[in-house]
Each structure stands twice: as structure tokens, then as C-alpha cells.
Write a structure and sequence with these properties.
heterodimer, A: about 140 residues, alpha+beta, Thiol Ester Dehydrase, Chain A, five-stranded antiparallel beta sheet, B: about 160 residues, 4 helices, about 15% helix
Chain lengths: ~140, ~160
């Protein structure tokens, strides 16, 4: 059986990049409310300073993960994201502009589906890497 | 000789501990608020007719929506699972999700969490404790929705 894949998806393929932000304090408040994560290091500068993550609040790591997930679901659709594993490598603060990128490492057939292993990452406006990770997606048949 | 690696017994004893299940009814507004908070305009997260036209029961949730399950005081897991007497700040170090079935509005999601590993490391800012928790999410049909693995860092 010949698997059909998104045309042109081969190792080395660059996933369409997604730029998010600037991250605002209002977004962190909304995210706290929507996720139920009210850890004050995301909402209160004073607590952030006392906790040693200061000088300002930091964004929720899961907000960055949501951004990189959006890059993947914009590409293959929400139900084709199988697995995503990320490491938060630097803190994100209000005002940061985050660019999500990714690259296909390997394309293989598994359970009758064409799947792509991808490396993903997010850089901020200063070129610092704030998230690194790996993803597994099903490639939709067209 | 300094003994650096032994964890206090009350911390080491958390490994293997499982929380009682938390069950949460997911509605359209929770999903829309989450999607709006992350700034993702995908119509599958907002438009019921569109989502039904794609074969879903209702709108579906963005993949990382699962992180909102079990965070509110009235849903709270066993406090002894979450309370790790270490350091003054807890930050999120790593997260993994494996998804099997999308969360759809109208679903009732049950989450069970288990501490799978705890270890200490010394970094630039001193000693840090890593707590790895695995969460399994199932829906009202008994389907396994997703598995999450989270690494929290305390210092």
C-alpha cells in the first residue's frame, strides 16, 4: 500500500513558523483564569522578585507550549498532533515576542499512517531559545 | 563526609503516590476562554456547527487545554500529593502530552495523577528538586484521551 502524504513533507521540511505576542500581562491574567494556574510568579511582580524569578512576572510555561502546539495544529490540524514533549529553557516575560519554528526529522509509516517526527523550538525577540521540544504528528492524506 | 544526595524521607515517599481521580465537566465556554487566552483562532475551538460538520460532537479543545483539569480548589487532588516541602519557588521544567482522542465540549474528563520520579540536582542557583508527575485523562465513554508527564522544579 502506498501512503499518501502532505505533498513535499520530507526530512528537513520546515514547518510554517508562527509568531506570537508580544506577551502581555493581560494575556497572563487571561491564561491564569482559563487554566486555573494562579501561581503568583505569573501575576505579581513582588512575588516574582521574592521568589528569585524577578525582576518581573514570568509567563506560564504552558502558554509557550500552547503556542508551539498551535504552530503544529495550524499545520496538520488539531487531531493529528499525537505527541509533544517540551523543555522550558528560558523565562518568558511581558513584552516578549515569540517565534515558534520546527523541522521534520523523519517520516515513517506507523499504524497505517504517515507520521512525522519533528524538532520544535521557540526563540524570543533577542534570539534566546525559550523552549525546545519534539513532536510526533500524523500527516493528513490529501 | 558530606552526604548530599539522600532526600528527606517525607519527600522520597511521594514517589508512586497516586491522587484520587478528579472529574471535570467540560463546557463550550471553558474551551473558548482557553482558546482565546492562548490567542488561537481555530474555528474548531469556537464554532459548534463547524465542529459538528467535521464529525465532532461539539467544539473541541486545544491540545494543551488538559492542563486546566484539576487546578481549581473544588477539583483539588489529594493535597498531600501536591505538597512537596522543598524550596521557595516551583517552576515548570518540562511537559509532555500524548493525545489519543480530542476533548469535546460536553465531555466529562477524569484525571488521575501519580508521582513517578523525584530527584535532586545542583544547578547554577543551588540545589533543585525535580518532581515528575504522570496524569492519565479519560472521558465519559471510557476512552483514554491523553497522558501527560510534567516535571516541576523546586528551588
Amino acid at each position: 500500500m502506498v501512503e499518501q502524504q502532505l505533498p513535499g513533507i520530507q526530512p528537513g521540511y520546515e514547518i510554517p513558523a508562527l509568531t506570537k505576542g508580544p506577551v502581555t500581562r493581560v494575556q497572563l491574567a487571561k491564561y491564569a483564569g482559563a487554566s486555573g494556574d494562579f501561581n503568583p510568579i505569573h501575576l505579581d511582580d513582588e512575588v516574582a522578585q521574592q521568589s528569585g524569578v524577578g525582576p518581573t512576572v514570568i509567563a506560564h510555561g504552558m502558554l509557550s507550549m500552547a503556542f508551539v502546539a498551535q504552530m503544529l495544529t495550524d499545520w496538520v490540524g488539531p487531531t493529528n498532533l499525537r505527541r509533544l514533549s517540551v523543555r522550558f529553557t528560558a523565562m518568558v516575560r511581558p513584552g516578549d515576542v515569540l517565534t515558534c519554528r520546527g523541522r521534520v526529522d523523519q517520516v515513517r509509516t506507523e499504524d497505517g499512517k504517515a507520521r512525522a517526527d519533528c524538532e520544535v523550538w521557540i526563540d524570543n525577540q533577542r534570539g534566546e531559545r525559550v523552549l525546545t521540544g519534539r513532536a510526533l504528528v500524523d500527516l493528513p492524506r490529501n | 563526609m558530606a552526604e548530599a544526595s539522600a532526600l528527606p524521607e517525607e519527600i522520597a515517599a511521594l514517589v508512586g503516590r497516586e491522587s484520587p481521580p478528579v472529574t471535570v465537566a467540560v463546557d463550550t465556554e471553558q474551551i473558548r476562554r482557553f482558546a482565546e487566552a492562548i490567542g488561537d483562532p481555530n474555528p474548531l475551538y469556537y464554532d459548534e456547527d463547524y465542529a459538528r460538520s467535521k464529525g465532532f460532537r461539539s467544539i473541541i479543545a486545544p491540545p494543551t487545554f488538559l492542563t486546566s483539569i484539576g487546578r481549581w480548589p473544588w477539583q483539588r487532588r489529594d493535597e498531600t500529593l501536591l505538597r512537596v516541602p522543598y524550596g521557595r519557588v516551583a517552576i515548570h521544567g518540562e511537559q509532555e502530552f500524548e493525545w489519543f482522542v480530542p476533548v469535546q465540549a460536553g465531555d466529562t474528563i477524569t484525571m488521575t495523577s501519580r508521582v513517578v520520579d523525584i530527584y535532586e540536582k545542583t544547578g547554577r542557583s543551588g540545589r533543585m528538586l525535580f518532581v515528575v508527575t504522570e496524569s492519565r485523562y479519560t472521558n465519559q465513554l471510557g476512552e483514554l484521551v491523553a497522558i501527560g508527564r510534567s516535571t516541576g522544579i523546586r528551588r
